[in-house]
């Protein structure tokens, strides 16, 4: 059997050429990957990214500025509303003083000029009664004030006395002592299920006849300007 020819080995130059081609492909791949990566954050997108960041900052600044302006406008509206209330109260004070001590004012004896009731929740009410006296301007009016409330409960008319409203059998009246006017304050508690209709205020001086004034519940609880300045 004839001897087989020895295997052919590639020429060294061909081997080097093949290695060069493979190296070139590898370098081309690396260069392509680097190009793609650098293209995602390269110099071409730098200015655009800076512009977008700048616009986002402008939006954030404008949003905050708008919020601050809205808050300032709301505070201004609240302040103006408070000023309007103060002006209304001052006008009411002036009118009250004119009626009380004006040269053309009608002189009256001890009376309850006004009554205001404010809810404190859960049946509790705070009352403010304005008392006046202009008949004898040199005299001091003094005594005690009590309150009664007329209304209905369980479809029956009922009148709650001062002791009932104060929830104490020996509750004393509220003292008053003034020359021209005074605001007297106190608290009441209405029982559950009671529907008030009318409030009766009684002034009892040490001597002489008691003075009684009545107000509807709706009138006393209405949101109206104060009847007189704080005494």
Keywords:
231 residues, alpha+beta, Immunoglobulin-like, 3-stranded antiparallel β-sheet, 41% helix, 29% strand, elongated, disordered C terminus, DUF3251 domain-containing protein, transmembrane helix
Task: Write a structural description.
This protein has 231 residues and is an alpha+beta fold. Among the domains are: 60-104; 111-221, Immunoglobulin-like, CATH 2.60.40. Helix content is 41%, strand content 29%. The protein has four helices and eight strands. It has helices at residues 12-40, 46-101, 162-166, 217-221, and strands at residues 111-121, 124-132, 141-153, 156-160, 174-178, 181-189, 195-204, 211-216. Strands 3, 4, 5, 7 and 8 form a five-stranded antiparallel sheet that branches. A hairpin with a 2-residue loop joins β3 (141-153) and β4 (156-160). The longest helix has 56 residues, at 46-101. Residues 225-231 have low confidence and may be disordered. Pfam families: DUF6776. InterPro entries: DUF6776 (IPR046703). This is DUF3251 domain-containing protein.
